[in-house]
User: What shape does this take?
Amino acid sequence: MTVKERAALCADDVLDGHFTLVSLPGMIDAISLEGARGWTSPNPHPVLSLMQWTTTNTDLAAAALDSALERFREKGHGFDWMTGPKCAHLIPLLQGKGFIEPSLDVAAMVCAIPRDVEAPVPAGIRISRIDDPEDLRVARVMARGFDVPAEVGIIFHHAYLTPSPVQTSEVFAAFADDDDDPVGVGYLSYMADERSVLLRVSSVLESHRGRGIYRALVTHRLAAAAAQGRTQMFVHAYSDGSRAALEDLGFERIGTLQLHRWRP
Assistant: This one.
């Protein structure tokens, strides 16, 4: 397999990691259409609705897009559509349906997980796995870090931690200066292929950035994955800062995903 082939394959694998959530009554509804899939929520915030194509056939993709648009127009909800290299030729379909331009580039990144991972902790910081899925402190940190309502963070928290046939997840929190309120959070999903993990949401409160907390959350999740015998970690990197920090930790950018936004 050539480097180019590997990049295309892995970039779309990273994209698929967004679509491992299962329906949760009152929180998340999985969507399955002929040619597309995704999830949405009774909550109208647009970050809680995401779609992707499951076909490369233009006619089938156009019909799936029309079905999705009809659904979201009826609800009056905005939503996002994410594309990877395999569906790049379908992007004009989105552009012709009123999706906001330009789309947002998302780096698909991967690293090999070493057997022995060093996970140092910055001075004054401690990192702990949160075993109680009802501990919503981490959900609120996620919401504050991404500037979304607390309810949105709580929905994502429960969605990530609900096992599905293709993933199970855990969450780590960072605490600072002997305070019991977390200042950073990072989710980790173990994929069903038994070798890969997905580095999900990572967020540090603005007041505590610059202390090495983001890096510590990543290395602790690398160490947790290594302890389970996992060998490869994927991540979607949305910001330049995240991309730079991940590259410094050995992650390689293997492709670009695109996030397309539709708003009523």
In short: Residues 58-75 form the longest helix (18 residues). The domain at 3-105 is CATH 3.40.630.30 (Aminopeptidase). The first strand starts at residue 29 and ends at 33. The helical segments are 3-16, 58-75, 91-95, 137-146, 150-161, 213-227, 240-248.
